[in-house]
TrEMBL record:
GO molecular function: alpha-1,4-glucosidase activity
UniProt-recorded name of the protein: SUIS protein
Species the sequence originates in: Ceuthmochares aereus
Gene3D superfamilies recorded: Golgi alpha-mannosidase II (2.60.40.1180)
InterPro entries in alphabetical order: Glyco_hydro_b (IPR013780)
Length: 129
């Protein structure tokens, strides 16, 4: 799992853009990754606890975002799009925290869910059936 962000004219402007999470499933349809997020400027953010740390996992067609530590910086960051590469069968539906969500599926086995608008500081679960 890795993160992309559309560039802005400054670093501060870039940090305000939604994240796009890219997931590459293994041959057994699992994946994992993590994200450390701080203000990008301060020193000793870990020691002061002014950072966010999120763990991502995929197993059995469920993508899970688990927040292990959060700070105010993360409340301003949103996850806009989630793309999962290696989804072998076209899903009939996608559920975000149990609620149906529109999605696209391409023949190259990429499932994409857009317009998520999820705060990085809140965990979520996305399942495809």
């Amino acid at each position: 799992v890795f993160e992309l962000q559309k560039p802005g004219t400054t670093s501060e402007a870039t940090r305000g853009n939604p994240l796009r999470l890219i997931v590459a499933l293994s041959s057994n349809a699992t994946a994992s990754g993590d994200l450390f997020w701080d203000d990008g400027e301060s020193l000793d953010t870990f020691e002061r606890g002014s950072y966010s740390y999120v763990v991502f996992n995929v197993t059995q067609n469920i993508f899970t975002s688990t927040v292990l530590h959060t700070s105010t910086e993360a409340t301003e960051v949103t996850i806009g799009t989630l793309s999962i590469f290696g989804v072998q069968e076209p899903p009939s539906k996608v559920l975000l925290d149990g609620k149906e969500k529109p999605f696209s599926y391409l023949d190259n086995q990429v499932l994409t869910v857009s317009d998520l608008g999820l705060s990085l500081s809140q965990g979520f679960s996305l399942q495809w059936l």
